[in-house]
Every structure is written in structure tokens, then in C-alpha cells.
Amino acid sequence: MRLSSGFWVRAYLTHLQSAGIPAFVVAKGDAERGDVMVKLNLLDGSARLYQRLFDLRADRYAWKQVEAGRSDTIDAQLERQNRRDKDLWIIEVEDRDGRALLEEFD
Predict the structure, then answer these.
(1) Cβ distance 63 to 106 under 8 Å?
(2) Which of 1, 10, 32, 48 could form a disulfide bond with 40, CB atoms 3.0-4.6 angstroms apart?
(3) Long-range contacts of 27-32 (CB under 8 A, 24+ apart)
(4) Does the pLDDT at position 106 exceed 70?
(5) How is residue 27 annotated by DSSP?
(6) Alpha carbon 101 to chain centroid distance?
(7) pTM value?
(8) How many CB atoms lie within 10 A of CB 85?
(9) 3-state SS, residue 98
């Protein structure tokens, strides 16, 4: 059974907060079925973008890095994506050490 997107986002933000990692919702998507993308802002002008994708080899969903580069470039990409998909959740995590803790939320 898949968790609703809204529930997953709340649990993820709480987990990050308990680890002392700042994070916030940039775009609120559909509470039940919206996809989630996570931008990891490294606070040095660079960022990484993660999306939950189906891994055919492992036969399950997993978080994959889909982009890395300048933070403003990734912001522009997310803005375009959000215009196409109003159900999309966008979460921004800020951590100089590159911790997004997504491996704990497959």
C-alpha cells in the first residue's frame, strides 16, 4: 500500500527536522497522489535534484538523483515542471553536507 503524498511529505519533513536539517515545501501538490521531487540545496550555489522512480532491475521504487548543478538552474527546471504538473510536490532541503536522508524513505 502506498502512502498518500501529503502524509509522506509530513513524515519526511519531521524526520529531517529531528536530524537538524532545514527543509520546506516549495510547492504543495495533490495530497493523495502527487509526485514528489526533492531539491537538495548545498548552500554554495549548487544543488541536486531527486525524484522517486521505478527501478526495473530492483523491481521497486527508489530515489534517484536526476540532476546536479547550479541551484538557480534547478529552480528554473522545477518551475517549468510545476507549470506542467500542478499535482507535483517540491521539497527543498538545505544541507552543506549533502544529507537529504532519502535512502530512509524508499
Answers:
(1) yes
(2) 48
(3) 27/78, 27/82, 27/88, 27/89, 27/90, 28/89, 29/5, 29/85, 29/86, 29/87, 29/88, 29/89, 29/90, 30/5, 30/86, 30/87, 31/4, 31/5, 31/6, 32/4, 32/5, 32/6
(4) no
(5) E
(6) 10
(7) 0.93
(8) 15
(9) coil
What φ, ψ does residue 89 adopt, rounded to 5°?
-95, 135
Tell me the C-alpha distance between 72 and 76, whole Å.
6
Residue 79 cell numbers, joined: 518551475
DSSP structure string for 28-97: ---TTT--EEEEEE-SSSEEEEEEEEEETTTTEEEEEEEEEEEHHHHHHHHHHHHHH-TT-EEEEEE-TT
How many residues make up the chain in this entry? 106
Q: With residue 6 as reference, give the H or E element that holds it.
A: helix 5-18
Q: What is the pLDDT of residues 67-105, one digit of tens each?
A: 999 999 999 999 999 999 999 999 999 999 999 999 886
69: left (phi over 0), alpha (psi -120 to 50) or beta: left
**87's grid cell:** 499535482
